Amino acid sequence: MPALAFHMPTFCDVALAVPLDMAFTYAIPPGMEPVVGGRVLVPFRQQRFSGIVVALHDRPPRVKTKKVIEALDLAPVLDEQLLKLGKWIADYYLAPVGEVFRAMLPLAAEFKHAVAYRITDAGRMALHLAGTSGSPARSKRAPEEQLVEFRVLDYLAERESAREESLRRATHVPVSTSKLKALLAGMVRKKWIVREDVSAARDAARVVKVAVLHVPVESRLAASPAAETGQAPSLHISSSPAKPAKKLNENQRTLIETLAASGGRLPVEALRGLDVSRTTLATLVRRGLIELVDAPQDFALSRLKPRQSPFEFEFSAAQKDALAKIGEAVGARKFGGLLLHGITGSGKTAVYLACMREVLEQGRSSILLVPEIGLTPAVAADLHQVFGDEVAILHSGLSDAERADQWHRIRRGEARVVAGTRSAVFAPVGDLALIIVDEEQDSSYKQEETPRYNARDVAVMRAKMAGAAVVLGSATPSLESYYNAKKSKYALVELPDRVEMRPLPEVEIVDMRQEFQETGKEQVISRKLAEEIRERLEKKEQVMVLLNRRGYSPVVLCRACGKTLQCKNCAVSMTHHKRERKMECHYCGHVAHIPDKCAHCGSEYVYFVGTGSEKLEELLHGMFPQARIGRLDRDTVRGREDFEQALNALNEGALDMLVGTQMIAKGHDIHGVTLVGVVGADMALGLPDFRAAERTFQLLTQVAGRAGRGQSPGKVVLQTYFQDHYAVQFAARHDFAGFYEKELQFRAWMHYPPYSAIANVLIRSEKLDDALTWSGALGHWFEKTRHEGIRVLGPAAAPITRLKRDYRYHFILKSPSREKMNALLRAMLAEAAARKIPRTQVIVDVDAVWLM
Ligand SMILES: [Zn+2]
Ligand SMILES: [Zn+2]
Predict the structure, then answer these.
(1) Percent of the chain with pLDDT over 90
(2) What phi and psi values does residue 596 have, to the nearest 5 degrees?
(3) Is the pLDDT of residue 388 over 90?
(4) In 487-605, which ranges are continuous DSSP H helix?
(5) Which of 373, 529, 634, 659 is deepest in the core (most CB within 10 A)?
(6) Going by DSSP bridges, is the β-strand pair 673-679/715-720 parallel, antiparallel, or unpaired?
(7) Ligand 1 center–CA 566 separation, angstroms
(8) Which pLDDT tens digit goes with each residue over 602-613?
């Protein structure tokens, strides 16, 4: 028989997660079959790295190549589309392609052990023949090798698959690792065994017991004899028409009702909180009403109670219109971009869920992106309620193994609805029909480390490549997206009213300069706000107060020499945290003792100046001792659970007031809140950042949107020192269009986005000398390089001149032509490399969100 005309290329190019803008060529040993888009293990500078194969070829490189150690995947982990997307990101953001791929794949947990062996039919036959003939195979090889092969087959015949480590133990033959590897490779060639990519799902996943309601429940509370005798009414369960309904005791009823209310599934762990004994659950399991199944741990449901089902609402005309337009874009099966501009409380989430359900009914996939922590729990509860097992949720609280697990579920097609934060944009879904980016303006979509991509913009590009629809949703769209919509790059869909026509809250501005003049002292809570809070508390309504700065006092000042306590790693003030009795740098996390005298002059006259959320909480406690006050900021919220707990407490009426940073501003739907106080949300207006006005407008609008989402109308008291600033004025009037017109004018004059592309080039070093020399040299190079149509500002000291021990200088590039700007940046990187400036010390941030 003629040999199969299949030729395995002899070389592969591998993208490694190292800070170098290139792929590396390796030789492929005979018998190994790496795939493009799959991972390989390779030697790199005395280390082993796993990387992604980007090309297979027969072109020997000029230098001597090393060999691939192991091919880790039989099938690509990045399909053609995701590979292409990764290359686009590397190109657009000038990021090393290997580092981009690493960011796209949450599979770090698998790099250690990813391979197992499984016996084939041919292997079973060989084993059978060996058993009858007394020798595993006729060959001239050493009996010892044959013995190993025999034992391997014997061991594998008993089980589904086994790792190399287990095989070594099972064979009981002292062969070296390399010898065993060679033997196994030989057996693979003989097709007795196959190597498998062991999915993390089977491998690394921690499994939890989940209770599943096993029978349809008619959750009506029937009046029963028990009820008449004063006991709790019993719940009737009708498992099937044939069986008579059985009565349950109170504990059993509680348990079943809880399960039913959670969509019929809950981790056993979550049921423990119900205060019913283990035997209750065991009894129900025995009676066949509940089944216990294994589930990956990350699938634990959000403990935030599902909100009123979004589908119980009658959709408004505007919502229906939005649904129809999105449905049309999905149905077109080509790229379509929509900007869904819905004011706070207009029911955007319900629209998202309805669209995703439609997509799922067509057997296609969708991805919902949400900002970092704010929306995840509430949205997760809704998603579980609507989609059950079909949804995979990716968020920052997951461990590596859990993340890998979700990734595999998605890739196997078990979850076609994906929701998550930034990196969920890379979810390996098949037949992608729709990507939704909620709160598209949120800065958490921008990754502030390499690769510095913006998930919103990547979502648009991915949709383009997939021929899918992309919906950017927001109450306060970014200037860029709104501009694109105005230019008809996106279709603009508006939800101009709140659900059930609830009015937007009335906003009252309190001028804090005037407050100072009238009261003669610096106030944190104005008289007006205090009066309004008192009124709400008396009416048993709820209050939120925003102060966008955590800690107790942001500055420690010496009255003798005028110096402040600075972080030893950064040129910023240390913040006083009173309860934890420490000073903390909010930029690098450095912690120090609370000073009792000045570090510069030794004076004892050190003062703690200014107010953070911790102090605000204390102040409010003092003013309203009877009120139950909770706080939500990064000091009180360590994980998703703390966050959910605080929101649940507010939702259930266990709190009267919630104080916090911008965390409280995002997307929560708490119906009892009728007053929102804003204390110093306009501090950002004093920062040297061209997005300061936009951010302030967005934050003010978002937090104002928390008021009056229930039956009672809401009110906002906005304290400000910038009362005439247009961001404050437009936010107070809920005048979105007005703000955007004004801000666009400013951007046009200043050549800022959306009129120009912008990039921030940061040169950093722990040595001041290096930072100065390098930025000076690059400044010189920019000066003598022709770059028509590109403005280069700098070098200048960055607004935060020292951060995490690095001294920082920067350039800002602006150009109406992104292509020209990126070409110049590429040339600059080449120049930096030629001057031996380490790649990690030159940070190129394309479409920078922070210029600090
Ligand atoms: Zn001093
Ligand atoms: Zn610091």
Answers:
(1) 54
(2) -105, -10
(3) no
(4) 512-519, 527-538
(5) 659
(6) parallel
(7) 12
(8) 999 999 999 999
